[in-house]
Design the sequence.
């Protein structure tokens, strides 16, 4: 599945390069926002534990190859994970297996590449977008003993990113935007375990500026 996602992102990138040979608008953006992330299975969009509430920030580029369509790429730093998991605290000599509550803290660099459709109303630009993303795990810890658990997780995560938003002009060059974005994992988070995947909901805001 990871190879499929990498192939999809490569194809989307090649499409962007081919369209870049034609004259079009390019917007760069900076954004940040609120994340709610969890772990799920069977591709459901609700979680198995309590959500981790965190943040994301990063940069984006939007290439308009027509008035209505663009290719959008992002590079984001994102906090992920979940709360109220269990960790075993008893050892092999203990006749009773005992657990305590812990929280899982994961941080990723994610790169979504999406196709966006734009709708204009009184200079306001509403849009919907969707496409594949790939994520690279930077660190992973559980909070009960502050243990590094990165080796338990696959270093690469991938799936589908989709959402909608609106851009509001501040000047001829600058636009303020807000958006709602979902990431649904298609690859297993754990090593040698493909059942459990990540799901992330985010509300972001930022500024786009026209390059040319």
Sequence:
């Amino acid at each position: 599945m990871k190879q499929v996602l990498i192939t999809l992102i490569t194809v989307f990138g090649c499409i962007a390069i081919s369209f870049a040979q034609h004259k079009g608008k390019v917007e760069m953006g900076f954004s940040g926002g609120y994340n709610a992330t969890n772990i799920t299975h069977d591709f459901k969009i609700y979680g198995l534990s309590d959500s981790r509430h965190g943040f994301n920030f990063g940069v984006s580029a939007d290439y308009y190859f027509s008035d209505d369509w663009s290719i959008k790429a992002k590079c984001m730093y994102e906090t992920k994970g979940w709360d109220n998991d269990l960790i075993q605290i008893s050892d092999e000599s203990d006749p009773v297996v005992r657990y305590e509550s812990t929280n899982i803290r994961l941080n990723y660099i994610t790169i979504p590449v999406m196709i966006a459709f734009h709708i204009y109303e009184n200079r306001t630009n509403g849009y919907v977008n969707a496409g594949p993303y790939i994520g690279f795990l930077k660190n992973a810890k559980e909070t009960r003993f502050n243990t590094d658990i990165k080796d338990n997780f696959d270093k690469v995560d991938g799936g589908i990113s989709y959402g909608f938003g609106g851009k509001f002009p501040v000047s001829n060059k600058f636009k303020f935007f807000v958006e709602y974005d979902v990431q649904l994992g298609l690859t297993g988070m754990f090593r040698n375990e493909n059942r459990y995947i990540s799901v992330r909901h985010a509300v972001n805001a930022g500024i786009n500026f026209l390059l040319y």
